[in-house]
Amino acid sequence: NCTTAICIEDNIIQVVPIICNPPPKPTCANGLSPVQVIDKDGCCWHWECDCYCTGWGDPHYMTFDGLYYSYQGNCTYVLVKEINETVDNFGVYIDNYHCDTRDVVSCPRTLIVRHETQEVRIATVKPNTLQVEVTVNKQVVALPYKKFGLSIYESGINRVVEIPELQMNVTYNGLSFSIRMPYSKFGNNTRGQCGVCNNNTADDCMLPDGTIAENCETMADHWQVVDPSKPQCSPGLIPTKAPSTTPKEPCKESSICKLLLGSVFEPCHGFVHPQKYYEACVFDSCLLPNLDLECSSLQVYAAICADQGVCIDWRKHTSGVCSYKCPADKEYRACGPIKEITCKSSQQNETSTKQVEGCFCPNGTMLYDTAVDVCVTTCGEFYCFICMRFGERFTIDCQDCICLEGGSGILCQPHECAKQNKTSCDGEGFYEVNEVNSEDSCCPIVTCKCNASLCTTKAPKCRLGFEVYSHIPSGQCCPVYECVPKRVCVHQNAEFLPNSSVFVDKCQDCFCTNEVNVSTQLNIISCEHIPCNTYCEPGYERQPVKGECCGRCVQTKCIVHTGTNSNLILSPGEFKNDPYNNCTIYSCVNVHNQLISSTSEITCPAFNEGSCKPGTITFLPNGCCKTCAPLDSPTPCSVRQRNDFIVYKGCRSSDRIVMTECEGTCGTSSLYSAEANSMEHSCSCCRESKTIEKHVELKCPAGHSISHKYIYVEECSCQVTEC
């Protein structure tokens, strides 16, 4: 009785009452208020920070110690297990699935609680809704359920699994879950995606082997468990890199998210900080704008506020986006009792002050029983059967019944279902599912569900420069794949981003442009030849050489060094006299791709100038040897002018035109060659050696003019010819 008995002596006993000094109130790492826990002696109490883990949306997690992270895995994972097992077969698990067509983010589908011989599954019936189904050991059960130290009941919008022996409860509503466990029983003895409950976030990202990951996104992937329905998931596999949880483009946040920071939730800000829930809300509204998943962030924050004793009626501020529809005989309340008072429990004292949102009986009525979801005005009306008056018709357990006075009181027959149009699920990936009919729970509706694992079309392997793009056409289940260009350049089995360098060969400087080749759909590679020195010495020409960028100067003509230290450039087959000595002749020949130059000297016959008459000494046509010219020598070869009209095809020049021609005589000789032991003949004729082309306008009889070209001789010379 909170007293201490002290033996003094001689049977003298002093009884001293235990004095309890209120302990200082600690600050919990998860931001929630600490709870009072009675000491083992039953007299005094101390503060403890409950282990509280929650998850919501697609999905976001808050660990036992309040560490926030997002994780998009689509397997089944451990939320919490004991490090040192004290309870048989104990654990809480979450089954996630990809809830968007791009397989980018995931949502919770089933919450699993295992305790000794029982496995409870609370599964979402319809994605992204609050409709759930409860099974125990794979058998559907009605609520409330209580067996083998475990109870399951409805609390507002939530389904609650409670294990009184462990003083813990787990809630789930299809969009979010929460796990509350006492620190006195589970402190420093939890592991999984909810972390270690020890009021310290430093070790919340603990891996199964006890090491700490650098972030909880990495840690979460290591807590996979074997799930036969998901063969692609297996514990121990190398985790794949999680997708970025940051939207690629700036996103305008949903106006609903702003409610978290505004006046609607302001009464709760002093108890629970809203920033992490606001960040999760913005992320959901940006990445999945059409699923209204941002409502889950507000719902979870409101639930935590209610847990801390602050009730927020927030749904009416969302313009109908986050509204919650109740059955016709119920009304929605943001702040209702955790356990609704019923005809059978109205006499019990309900001491809990915590509240939840959900559908409750209207004022003036009362729930008959937790197992009979009917609101009544007077509990005494259930004399006949549950909540029915005599003569009243009702449906129970899919039986159409009438309450009669006398006899057994009840007359029932099987409930008749309205005829339904036959649903055909012929499309690939679709399969038939019986769904609960909201208007008649006894008559399930056959609908078509999509199971992507039934699709046979596989993603194609795209050629280099292309990547797979998938989309699901409206009304279909299976994705359609196509290869789309990645907007890169491709060269020698490698991809190059725009503006990056591309090595084609050592003679070109190339880079990847932003221009697209219409036929190949690949970006165009632009190249420029590296700068080259194009100069070559006289007699050389630059020619391409294999393995070299700028080619090489190759000799194509003979270079002859004359006696006067000058150079002559001769093409193969060309002959040329020395500029200062007509008796020396240079030549160039190509023999087997070798250029060979040669020099020839003209040997003149004996000549006596005295034998010539005065004024008759002249040169032979070779320009080297002298000879005597006859006195009556004709006019030497020269240019002669004449003026005349030019007539062409009937058209004539207006005036006489100066025209030139060659006229005169040239030498011819026959000389004996001692070396050849024969006569050598030399002949030449007077021919043009330099001409130009001139233009003249000719007038035609029809009155028009034409331009005519003619040859104008500028120089004449004696030129060697065959004799």
TrEMBL record:
Domain named VWFD: residues: 51-234
Q: Which residues form a coiled coil?
A: none
Q: Which UniProt keywords apply?
A: Disulfide bond, Glycoprotein, Repeat
List the Gene3D superfamilies hit by this protein, alphabetically: Laminin
Q: Which GO terms describe its cellular component?
A: extracellular matrix; extracellular space
Boundaries of each VWFC domain copy?
388-449, 487-554
Q: Which residues form the CTCK domain?
A: 637-723
Entries under Pfam families matching the protein: C8, VWD
Q: What InterPro entries does the entry give? A: Cys_knot_C, Mucin_vWF_Thrombospondin_sf, Ser_inhib-like_sf, VWF/SSPO/ZAN-like_Cys-rich_dom, VWF_dom, VWF_type-D
Any S-S bridges, and between which cysteines? 651-700, 662-716, 666-718
* Keyword Glycoprotein found: yes
- Entries under SMART domains matching the protein: C8, CT, VWC, VWD
Q: What is this protein's record name?
A: Mucin-2
